[in-house]
Amino acid sequence: MNDTCAPPESQSGSAVTAVAAWNGAGIPFNQLVLAVGSYGHSFAVNQSSAYPNGPDGDLALYPAFNATNKRQGDAWDDEPGPDACGVQQTWGGNYNFWALVDAGYLDECGEATSEVGYIYDECTQMVRSAAKSLLIAVDSTKPLLSIAIRLQRDIRIDDLF
Question: Less CB within 10 Å around the terminal CB: N or C of the chain?
């Protein structure tokens, strides 16, 4: 949701930076619509990177990951193959909400389960969970609820239609 407080090498785009970029390009805030996907993106990590202080320590916020080891996400993840421009793509490593619940990473309310190691990143407002050498960065329900409350307070939704 917000990566502006993350280390520069860990900033990979967020709702905050996207809205600022579009507004900087001349589109007024009141003409922007922000759609937020509810999914997780997976990264291959080794145990020592995920848990630098040992298996009983805290999960690292920004562990090193293997960018060449792309793993399949859930059953709806895009298969490897050429994209619309003919460029070969690997697995996306994406997980939809239902798959994160089915795999035991999240409960039905979107909270991390005790079955896997997790840490809530106050900066990016994402939950990072790790199990089986896989780190999944998941949209947290906390900022989504905050955005919904602010939108309800600041904008009359029925005025938009």
Answer: C
* 0.70 exceeded by pTM: no
The pLDDT of 104-112, averaged and rounded, is 80
Residue 90, token pair as written in the block: 């690997």
Distance of CA 140 to the CA centre of its chain: 8
Higher pLDDT, 30 or 152: 30
Residues 6 or more apart whose CB falls under 8 angstroms from that of 102 comprise none
- Quick check: 137 and 39 in contact, CB under 8 A? no
Q: Where are the domains of the chain?
A: 39-160
Give CA 159 to chain center in angstroms: 30
Which 3 state secondary structure label does DSSP give 103?
Answer: coil
Contact (CB, 8 A) for 99 and 74: yes
